[in-house]
Every structure is written in structure tokens, then in C-alpha cells.
Amino acid sequence: MNPIHAQNARDPYAPLLAIDGLEVEFRTAEGTVNAVRGVDLELRPGEVLGIVGESGSGKSVTAMAAMGLLPRSASVRGSVRFRGEELLHLRERQLMPFRGKAISMIFQDPMTSLNPVYSVGWQIVEAIRAHQDVSKEEALQISIELLRKVGIPNPEDRVANYPHEFSGGMRQRVVIAIAIANNPEVILADEPTTALDVTVQAQVLDTLRTALEMTHAALLLITHDLGVIAGIADRVLVMYAGRPVEIGTVDEIFYNPSMPYTLGLLGSLPRVDTDGSEKLRPIPGSPPSMIGKPTGCPFAPRCPLAADVCQEREPELAPVNAQTPSHLAACHFTKQAHDRGISLFIATSVDLDSASENLATTAPGSASSKAPGSEELRAPGPGNYVLAEGLSPAGPGGYETAPDGHEGSGATGPADGEETTP
Ligand code: ADP
Ligand code: MG
After folding, report:
1. Which atom of ligand 1 is found nearest the CA of 33?
2. In whole angstroms, what is the distance from residue 62 CA to residue 68 CA?
């Protein structure tokens, strides 16, 4: 038996991918960048785990470290195991059976994954033949079927086209076809829809969902957009300044967010249960520099609940309460954050707008930390956020598309010409 499958034979529920104590530093002229400061996560078979956080929070570096794709300037500590086998510090050659076969990757810009000088068919054939013992003709037939399944119209003809002959969304579908060509167990997708127009984003997400149904692969989905996570993830890990600051099921994160940063992310998302007249409220301030190590909570300078203890000690990730051991948050004031809900930031922004008052120094729980007249706003659950313009959610975990009917399920494919070739 293939040694990488040995552990699975013993325990089908064992995590496929397990990351423990991952730390990544870059030595730069400006100082040491502490890009990842202790990530622990498990990805179980068939699960979709979303990693969300603002730009620079260490999401991509975490993924690149897991796949051995970081530059030499990176120093990496911790453990990354696939089915129990340590991947960190393996040589390129030793990583070959994992990359592109057991674990496949999808990046933000399809042009970085596709070679502009070869037809897409040639590229899928090569991907298949790198890991499967089939003839070119067989591989070409498989490629055409894959293109059909990811919703490329007329795949028999399109297979001969070059990447530049496809639109951005169609190119990303080709990348998804390559990602599933060898029946991976894990798909690692880093901002797969970020470069696309908002309406195309949902189509590509839908294709990704179809790809998961076909392969039963687990997905690690990295995005800065909680709206993308809402419709597809089972669990969510929120990252800030190189560390997980909250982790839980999608319902725990959307209905009971308990770390102020998560509340801020939710409060800044467009919603479908409002009339759209209110302003979106971005979290005030910007993420910290990753050079050097923080003394207190890195989110404290932006946090309406911040108190002295937050400047002094970085909070540990701990269970939010005894009933939900899977829901962890890193905050000295988890309960206050949970009780305030997304009104924490909305009220703060209103207050800042009207009085230009800096609430960052207000002690948590004190009477003055409540904006005058602010009612407690609860987070409304994953179904209430707008995934992309022209889309409306269909309850938790699902969404509908714009009523133009052009959205394809992926299995049948969208109507031809749904996207125009540039
Ligand atoms: P994101 O969450 O947006 O994916 P990244 O994981 O790409 O963030 O980056 C995390 C931090 O690491 C950022 O501060 C980034 O500037 C830094 N970083 C990433 N790659 C390098 C590198 N090769 N050299 C130095 N710093 C880097
Ligand atoms: Mg990134």
C-alpha cells in the first residue's frame, strides 16, 4: 500500500492536513517579518475550511509554507502533516507525489497557473499524464470531459484554445479542471475569485463546489472576503497579524462571533436584509507592521474594547464557552465582544462620525463604551450577507444568483457566451 495512504486505512476520520505551531519569519533589510506566528489547524476529509483575514495577515504564507513553496529567505518552524506524514523540510523531489496529485492548488490569478504558450488541452493532458498512466488520446478525452464538468461550453473545440482566448472566469474554470484532474484529496485555493468580476465570482465558486462534489476533496479556501466563505465553508479560521484569532463552524462565526476583529469583518460586509442605504463600516485603522513581535494584542489599537491588559498581554486562543469546545477566540473580553455583537463597530463608527471621539481607550463594559442610542445588533447569520453584486443568499450556506438565469451549476455548464472572451 502507498505509505501516504496507510494512516487513512486505519482511521478514515483522521485529519488529512494537520498544521501545528507553524511559524514563518522573513529576514529583511527592515528587520524580521513575523509573517506567521503560530497557526494550528486541521482539515478533515471532505471538509471546507475557510481562512479569512485582511491582506497581510499571513494567509498565503501559511499555505505556501504547507506546500514548501516559500523562498529561501523564509525560516519555517512547526509541523505540516499530510495523512500523518511530515511535509515541512522535504526536498522538492519528495514533495512531488503530494503536489498536484494528493494536494492541488488554485491561485488568485489563473495566468500564473496557466502557461500562455500552450493550449489548455495540452496543459490538462500534461497534468494528467504526470500522475496517471494513460495515453495522450485518453488524457485528451478526460480533459474534454473535465472542461465540460467545470462549465466550459463546447469543450471539444475549446480544448485547443490558448489561455488568452478565455475570459478570466473561464480561465479560472480551466485551472479548477487541472486542480481536479488527478482526483486530489485536498484542494488549496488562495483567493480563487478575488481577481474576478463580482458576478463571475459566484459562478466560479459554484464550479468549485461542483469540483468538490466530484472529487470529495477537502478544501482549504483562503480569502479576505467573509462573504465568499459564507456560502461554501463548514468551518472558518479568522487570521489577524499572523495568528488565528477565532475559529469555529460557519454558524458559530456568523451567529456568535466573539472576537472584536471578526465582528469588524462582519460589520463591514454588505447585507441583503438591509435596504442598502446605510454606509458600510470598514474597521477603522490598519493592520500592524509584522516586523518585530507585538507585546499586547495586535488588534488593540483598532479595538473599541481595548483596555490596559490588551496592551500588556496577547490573548491566547481559548474556547468561547464550555458548551462549544470547537469555537475558539483570542480576546481578553470574549464575552463582552459576543454580547455587543456587530453593533460594537457599527455603533463605534456612528459615534466616531458624530463626535470624532476615540473609543479605543474606553474600558470594556464601562457605561461609556456604549454609543448613545445604539441598539444591540446581532450578527444575522451566513445567509444574510451579499456574496457578490447581483446575488442573493438562499438561507445559511446557500445562495441564489441573479435572475438572468445564466448561472451554470458547473455540471451542465452555463449558456454559451455567458462570459465574453476579451
Ligand atoms: P495575506 O494574508 O494577504 O495572504 P501574506 O501571507 O502574503 O498575507 O503575507 C503575510 C506577511 O508576510 C505580510 O506582512 C507580507 O508582507 C510578508 N511577506 C510575505 N512574503 C514575504 C517575503 N517573501 N519576504 C518578506 N516578507 C514577506
Ligand atoms: Mg494572500
Report:
1. 26
2. 10
**Which atom number of ligand 1 is nearest to the Cα of residue 36?**
10
Whole-number Å distance between alpha carbons of 137 and 119: 15
Counting ligand 1 atoms within 8 A of each CB, the residue from 23, 61, 62, 226 with the most, and so the one to mutate, is: 61
Backbone angles phi, psi at 236, to 5 degrees: -130, 135
Position 357, amino acid = E
Burial code of 90-117, b = ≥16 C-beta within 10 A, e = fewer?
A: eeeeebebbbbbbbbbbbbebbebbeee
Picking from 398, 56, 412, the residue whose alpha carbon sits closest to that of residue 205 is 398
Q: Is residue 222 classed as helix, strand or coil in its secondary structure?
A: strand
Picking from 74, 24, 18, 80, the residue whose alpha carbon sits closest to that of residue 44 is 18
**Residue with grid cell 500564473, as numbered in its chain:** 112
pLDDT for 344-382, tens place per residue? Answer: 887 665 544 444 444 333 344 443 333 333 445 666 777
**What domains are there in the chain, each with its CATH number?**
3-237 (3.40.50.300), 271-285+295-378 (no CATH)
- pLDDT of 27 strictly over 50: yes
